[in-house]
Amino acid sequence: MKVLVIGSGGREHAIVYSLKKSALVDRLFCTPGNAGTVELAENPGLAADDFDSLLHFVKNEKINLTVVGPEVPLVQGISDLFAGHGLSVFGPSSEGALIEGSKIFSKELMKKSRIPTADFSEFYDRFSAAKYIKSKKPPYVIKADGLAGGKGVIITKSADESEEVLSAMFEKKIFGESGTKVVIEEFLKGEEATVLALCDGKNVVPLISSQDHKPVYDGDKGPNTGGMGAIAPAPVVNERVMDRVMDRILNPLVHELNRRNIVYRGIIYAGLMISDENPSVVEFNCRFGDPEAEAVLPLLDSDLCDLIFRAVNGELKDVDIKWKHGFSCDVVLVSGGYPGKYEKGKEISGLEKHVDDNEMVVFHSGTKVMGGRTVSNGGRVLNIVGLGKTLKTAMDRAYRLVNDINFENMFYRRDIGFRGLKYFS
Ligand code: AMP
Ligand code: GLY
Question: pLDDT tens digits for 111-163?
Fold first, then answer.
């Protein structure tokens, strides 16, 4: 069949990489793509928000399945549009995508279905938010309601600091209109993990767990980013925790979505905080995580196209997903200055080295080909993934390959996977 992947990040490169291995896929397209995806898929050069051109392309090329990578087109209704034209699309409707598109929607849904999550209150103006903060003890977790590229959560240690953040959100509108509705949450303690799950509208099948590393500096210091690296599987997600994630979180979520007549066909991303083997939801997203997808998908031993096709057609019941034994470690190489200001267009060296993809894989995030050279084209530039029988081997392989790669002002965390070592050795 002919498959189109929409998006341009490391997540989409990892999806394309996995679909490329499928015997079911005859022709693979990715748009807008990057310097990595063009090596594996045809690139029609259409933007992810140009729905008219995408629809025209899918109909003209008789694409059998469209896989939507990022949240923005999902929240904007690309799946509703395609489904309305009788096309197969993997990714929820705009209503389903609200589990990510609105923190208030998502928190209320959790409350209604008794899904464990931090206590919260919602605010529509700066003054009532500040008053509420004064009535609570620090730390404070302040979240923009709408999409903010993974950067819309700020944790503060004092009421004064919180006032500054609230002023920046409500008055300076640092997150645009997304930040003019705010959720303030109880601070949760524990070990973080991500569980991605396939959903066919009714049935939920989890993928192996993973763990993102969001803060920009070693030791989880500095501002949050889209993700500086990830490992899979995650520490602390044992069988009992995974059963609880299914029973207390994912199944109740889908049940509640169904009750509201929302048929969710796509990936559910559950960002979790786990304490004493009890998982609480930090956030839901409506798509594969980035960089979690780059850590999880190289360990997949089943056919991704078959799984996605089943999800789209409501056929996930009793599906048993096969995984390679072992671990992965994804180190993200970013442009100096990220998540603040950074420069693009830096030539990347060291990518020509051929590696055994049972040991190492490179997924491009913000890259493009310019005049025959591969250059940086975003904050997160490359994902260097090591694979191995142990987490330590996976980490060593990733960092060994990182040493061969360079671009001006390249920056990365040197401790991806470190905390996991104490659980897995
Ligand atoms: P989010 O974008 O909602 O995943 O939040 C970004 C990061 O902020 C998470 O990965 C956590 O590290 C942290 N965070 C968010 N909510 C909470 C919370 N209620 N308690 C503690 N940490 C949180
Ligand atoms: N890795 C965080 C996210 O995909 O939202």
Answer: 999 999 999 999 999 999 999 999 999 999 999 888 887 778 889 999 999 99
Q: Which atom of ligand 2 is nearest to the CA of 285?
A: 5
* Ligand 2 geometric centre to CA of 116 (Å): 20
Neighbour-count burial for 88-124, b at 16+ CB within 10 Å, e otherwise: bbbbbbbbbbbbbbbbbbbbebbeebebbbbebebbe
What is the distance between the alpha carbons of residues 155 and 136, in angstroms, rounded to a whole number?
14
Backbone torsions φ then ψ of 337, nearest 5 degrees: 105, -30
| CA 375–ligand 1 middle distance (angstroms) | 32
Ligand that comes closest to the CA of residue 289: 2
Residue nearest to atom 4 of ligand 2 (CA): 289
CA angle 296, 302, 308 (to 5 degrees): 80
- Check residue 157 and give left, alpha or beta (phi > 0: left; psi -120 to 50: alpha): alpha
Q: Decide if 130 contacts 184 (C-beta within 8 A).
A: no
Look at residue 403 and tell me whether its pLDDT is greater than 80: yes
Candidates 120, 141, 192, 275: which one to mutate for ligand 1, based on the most atoms within 8 Å of Cβ? 141
Q: Label residue 352 by pLDDT band (50, 70, 90).
A: confident
Polymer length of the chain: 425
pTM over 0.85: yes
